[in-house]
Design a protein that fits this description.
The protein contains 14 helices and 22 strands. By secondary structure, the chain is an alpha/beta fold. The protein has a 7-stranded mixed sheet with strand order 14-15-16-13-12-18-19, sandwiched between helices. Strands 9-8-7-10-11-21 form a 6-stranded mixed sheet, sandwiched between helices. A hairpin with a 2-residue loop joins strand 1 and strand 2. Helix 2 runs antiparallel to helix 5, helix 4 runs parallel beside helix 5 and helix 9 crosses helix 10. The longest helix is centred in the first third of the chain and has 21 residues. The chain binds adenosine-5'-diphosphate.
């Protein structure tokens, strides 16, 4: 591995369209700041409809050749991309920490899992087999074949700006699709860095195009284009719903990874130390800013007090600071709006009788640093029960019976992740059937892995990322009937 920590080469201050680094036609740009100290990292182009049109055209033209390229060629490009990412892991992690705020150890992990997604899909594309179906008559042959779906638009969020893109680029590029990428404006460099690496690896011009700028202008150009055949989005449920509506006019294929409201259930028979460890990972990783974060922690009456006391002791051990400093476990939150949201939720709970056991305030470091917080006495009437917190606050609710907690856990429009701590195997199978969640973690708080299909039910999304299922959405299936063979 290259040990250089210098990420200057990944700050292009330009967008990558058709193999060229360009600025916005208007000359406008967007400032990118470090959430740990407010310093300016750089400026990226503020592109709009015109540049998006050029990116879609470039992707269309590139599709003609790339969609017919040898699988061996695509696999080689993806493997080299994986190797490039891992070679530059340290610099890319530092860049990610600088613009997103997460601790370096988490940033290194994100780069590694992003690279692993690329490798996974390079392997998996070799196994997308078609079918030969027995024909009802002897003069015909029936086949099922798979083909790249076409130009893909990938819209990504700021909380995992590198790995969320990997989950989309990996299957798209393996399948033979070309891509227009629109990253979140808070964290554009982690996406533009992919362009720098792809150029080094030698991806043909137009196969991937990366645009920064106005979400509304870029988004509406993408959604109204009949040439974009698929949109893959990770972000809020509100924006996801808007994209689903906009996709109707040209009947695009869609994959949506949207919000969550994860229940975290701790039963009386749980291994409490393991439950605390899982809750800490699930709740406080990335300052609670993940869509699979534990959002409502339900502790059964028999272990409630012991669990709360162990959890509060673990929270006291967390260390806040700039993510670039060693031993820091919690970075800043992404922006002031995120801080204000958790303050509102805590205020609502306090008004209704909730109790702050640890934290509860902005941290003395200032800026967007917020104290990791534990609130007890939480009830179903509080906003904590229904709102996605997206911050470092652990609300604990008490429950008595399994049936009661299953009903409460399902009482949400979301259906992304659920976590359950119990030693009872029969209960594990019961809850697997009765909890309406696309991701189920029993006795663990961390379940994401490239081999498995990640994705939510209900209003948490459509489609899967990762696993063999992660390729399906990037493939168009054709049924082929060949007659007259008798
Ligand atoms: P968050 O910012 O909480 O991750 P958002 O859903 O607001 O969630 O943003 C996720 C991504 O969607 C970002 O890249 C953002 O710029 C983009 N986005 C926001 N609004 C739109 C829109 N109307 N059309 C297309 N993309 C959008």
């Amino acid at each position: 591995m290259n040990t250089s920590t210098d990420f200057k080469k990944f700050l292009p201050n330009a967008n990558w369209i058709n193999g060229h680094w360009i600025t916005a036609e208007s000359g406008a740009s967007i400032e990118v700041t470090n959430p740990a100290d407010g310093t300016i990292i750089g400026q990226v182009p503020n592109c709009g409809a015109a540049e998006t049109g050029s990116a879609i055209d470039a992707a269309r033209q590139a599709f003609e050749k790339y969609s017919h390229s040898d699988i061996n060629t695509r696999v080689r490009l993806l493997r080299e991309l994986h190797d490039g990412l891992m070679d530059q892991q340290e610099a890319l992690a530092r860049l990610l920490t600088a613009e997103q705020g997460k601790p370096l150890a988490e940033a290194r992990g994100e780069i590694a899992i992003g690279a692993a997604y690329i490798l996974w899909f390079a392997e998996e594309i070799r196994r997308t087999k078609g079918e030969l179906i027995p024909s009802p008559t002897s003069d015909r042959r029936l086949m099922v074949t798979h083909h790249p779906v076409g130009v893909v638009a990938a819209i990504t969020p700021w909380n995992f700006p590198s790995s969320m893109l990997a989950r989309k680029l990996g299957p798209a590029l393996a399948a033979g699709c070309t891509v227009v990428v629109k990253p979140a404006s808070a964290t554009p460099y982690s996406a533009l860095a992919w362009g720098v690496l792809m150029e080094e690896v030698g991806f043909p011009p137009g196969v991937v195009n990366i645009l920064t700028g106005s979400a509304a202008a870029i988004g509406s150009t993408i959604m109204s284009s009949p040439h974009v055949r698929k949109v893959t989005f990770t972000g809020s449920t509100a924006v996801g719903k808007q994209l689903i509506r906009q996709s109707a006019d040209s009947v695009k294929k869609i994959s949506m990874e949207l919000g969550g409201n994860a229940p975290f259930l701790v039963f009386d028979d749980a291994d409490l130390d393991a439950a605390v460890e899982g809750a800490m990972i699930s709740k406080f990783r990335n300052m609670g800013q993940t869509c699979v974060c534990a959002n409502r922690i339900y502790a059964q009456a028999g272990v409630h007090d012991a669990f709360v006391s162990k959890l509060s002791a673990a929270i006291e051990q967390l260390t806040l600071g700039p993510g670039s400093e060693p031993d820091v476990t919690q970075g800043p939150m992404i922006d002031m709006a995120a801080v204000e949201k958790v303050e509102t939720l805590i205020g609502d709970a306090l008004q209704q009788g909730g109790k702050v056991v640890v934290g509860g305030q902005r941290h003395k470091l200032g800026g967007t640093f917020f104290e990791p917080t534990l609130v007890t006495g939480v009830t179903e009437r509080m906003q904590f029960a229904t709102e996605e917190i997206f911050g470092p606050v652990a609300p604990v609710l008490r429950f008595d019976h399994e049936e009661e907690v299953v009903a409460a856990a399902n009482r949400t429009e979301y259906g992304l992740a659920a976590y359950i701590y119990t030693q009872d195997m029969a209960r594990i199978f019961r809850l697997n059937e009765s909890l309406d969640y696309g991701l189920m973690g029993f006795n663990t708080g961390l379940i994401t892995t490239v081999e498995a299909p990640f994705g939510g039910l209900k209003e948490s999304g459509i489609g899967k990322e990762g696993g063999s299922q992660g390729l399906v959405d990037y493939l168009a299936t054709k049924y082929v009937c060949i007659a007259g063979l008798g």
